[in-house]
């Protein structure tokens, strides 16, 4: 992982108007952040597919604690990987919601909602916040300058900023001091034909699949049982839907 001096050098050159290629070259040889993206198979990522998740809160254990734990293990954030929690990573968090009129309390995991019209992408000045053709929203750590506009724009508080140097990182989940991070929908697993780690750990509470395919399991369940978007009034057409809220 690049050291702070190299990252600061990159930022200065970026702000001076030097292109991304030149800026990336300022990092030490062999020390570039590895970008999370599709596999090298030509045409692998396509807009014919839109990946999404349907979360049944009634089936979650402890409000989705197993989902949070699986994410921490897969991506190496949280107390299990680091001795302090000052990073306050927000890849996924458990939220408690109380219905004011009845007092009913519900808990659910909230992560990046992978919006079709993503506010974080709209406000990013460098293009670091991006949406793949298949609907997965990511952060390109090579060109993130840490302005945190995306954090302010996200209505789900699903992004966090890395304040300190990190160690023992996972190869598939690059994290860098001075950059923003969030749920990647386990893109490295998806590109290998696997399900996200949270889906695998949810014991059937989360269904993952292609929202564009009317015959997929997730589309069939949404047709039969429906699913709600958090803040549907914003018109973002989220890729994550919920049942039981």
Can you give a write-up of this model?
It is a single chain. With 245 residues, the protein is of the alpha+beta class. The chain has 2 domains: 1-32; 33-243, Alpha-Beta Plaits (2-Layer Sandwich). The chain is built from 8 helices and 9 strands. Strands 8-1-9 form a 3-stranded mixed beta sheet. A two-stranded antiparallel sheet has the order 2-3. Strands 4-5 form a two-stranded antiparallel sheet. A hairpin with a 6-residue loop joins strand 2 (92-98) and strand 3. The N and C termini lie far apart (41 Å). 37% of the residues are buried. The model is unreliable at 6-42 (pLDDT under 50).
Write the topology of this structure.
Elements: H1 4-15, H2 20-25, E1 51-56, H3 65-75, E2 92-98, E3 105-111, H4 119-123, E4 129-131, E5 137-139, H5 149-153, E6 159-161, E7 180-182, H6 187-190, H7 197-201, E8 206-210, H8 217-225, E9 240-243
Parallel strand pairs: 1-9
Antiparallel strand pairs: 1-8, 2-3, 4-5, 6-7
> Strands across the major sheet, in which order?
8-1-9
- Straight-line N-to-C gap: 41 Å
How many domains in all?
A: 2
Helix residue percentage = 10-25%
In DSSP terms, counting alpha (H) and pi (I) runs of 4 or more, how many helices? 8
Give a short account of the largest sheet.
3 strands, mixed
Low-confidence stretches: 6-42
The secondary-structure element order is HHEHEEHEEHEEHHEHE
Mean pLDDT: 83
């Amino acid at each position: 992982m690049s050291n702070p001096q190299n990252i600061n050098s990159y930022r200065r050159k970026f702000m001076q108007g030097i292109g991304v290629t030149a800026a990336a070259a300022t990092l030490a040889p062999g020390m570039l952040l590895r970008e999370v993206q599709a596999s090298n198979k030509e045409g692998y990522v396509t807009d014919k597919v839109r990946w999404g998740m349907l979360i049944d809160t009634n089936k979650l254990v402890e409000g989705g604690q197993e989902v949070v734990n699986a994410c921490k293990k897969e991506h190496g954030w949280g107390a299990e990987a680091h001795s302090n929690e000052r990073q306050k990573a927000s890849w996924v968090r458990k939220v408690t919601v109380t219905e004011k009129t009845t007092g009913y309390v519900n808990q659910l995991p909230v992560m990046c909602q992978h919006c079709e019209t993503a506010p974080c992408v709209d406000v990013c000045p460098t293009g670091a916040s991006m949406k793949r053709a298949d609907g997965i929203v990511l952060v390109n750590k090579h060109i993130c300058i840490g302005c945190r506009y995306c954090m302010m724009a996200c209505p789900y508080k699903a992004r966090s900023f890395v304040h300190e140097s990190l160690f023992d990182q996972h190869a598939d989940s690059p994290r860098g001091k001075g950059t923003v991070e969030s749920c990647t929908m386990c893109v490295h697993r998806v590109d290998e034909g696997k399900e996200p780690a949270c889906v695998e750990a949810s014991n059937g509470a989360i269904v993952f699949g292609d929202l564009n395919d009317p015959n997929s399991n997730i589309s069939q369940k949404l047709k039969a049982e429906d699913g709600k978007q958090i803040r549907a009034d914003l018109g973002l057409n989220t890729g994550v839907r919920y049942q039981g809220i």
